[in-house]
Amino acid sequence: MLLPVFAFGHPVLRKLAEDIDPNYPDLEQLIANMWETMYHSHGVGIAAPQIGKAIRLFVVDTLQLVEQFDEDDRAEYPNEQGIRQVFINAQKLDETGEPWAYNEGCLSIPKIRENINRPAKVRLRWMDEHFQEHEAEFDEVSARVILHEYDHIEGKLFIDYLSPLKRRLLKKKLDDISAGRISVDYRMNFPGK
């Protein structure tokens, strides 16, 4: 089932998300709905706060990005294999590597893209959809997407990394998103409506 994506301005996007256990109601269906919503919205990741739930859950699929890589992308991201993964109760253990800029966007903040600096690598501990524990290090584009989605469960948005001047320049666009004065090809839940 397609779920509405909660737009910038909704309080749930600023909450510190809570851990869940295997008894979380209808978890399997929720995860399936998140995948469906993410793909329908042309995203590569989506976090539970973006569908109105302040829980530590996000899904990431960078395999589709890797499939679209051209020669330049392959040269720039030689180690990128792509992942398709459910992350439950993720905890960031470490960030390493030289920070690098990448043009990020967000389903909750449509039609705004900005270059954001993030570390090259991230090490996480998390549970998968079967509540099996994992620990791994990710780099390149997968690390970028994971860090973006991880921020969502910490109540942060990619625009928080922008300078105050840049945020002021985007204020009208952000106000329009909050008010629902924007057109996208997926369902959204606007705070003012």
Description:
With 193 residues, this protein is α+β, with helices and mostly antiparallel strands. The chain has one domain: Peptide Deformylase, CATH 3.90.45. The chain contains five helices and nine strands, in the order βαββααβββββααβ. The strands form three sheets. The chain has a five-stranded antiparallel β-sheet with strand order 2-3-4-7-8, with helices on both faces. It has a two-stranded parallel sheet with strand order 1-9. A hairpin with a 5-residue loop joins strand 7 and strand 8. The longest helix has 16 residues. The mean pLDDT is 95.
Largest sheet strand order: 2-3-4-7-8
CATH level-4 homologous superfamily: Peptide deformylase
Q: What percent of the residues sit in helical stretches (DSSP H or I)?
A: 25-40%
Main β sheet profile: 5 strands, antiparallel
CATH architecture: Alpha-Beta Complex
Rg from alpha-carbon coordinates? 16 Å
Give the strand tally. Answer: 9
Mean pLDDT: 95
* Continuous helix count: 5
Can you tell me the CATH topology? Peptide Deformylase
For the record, the count of structural domains works out to 1
| Beta-strand percentage range | 25-35%
Query: Roughly how many Å apart are the termini?
Result: 22 Å
Helix-strand pattern = EHEEHHEEEEEHHE
CATH class bucket: Alpha Beta
- Output the structural class: alpha+beta
* Regions with little confidence, pLDDT below 50 for 5+ residues: none
Shape: globular
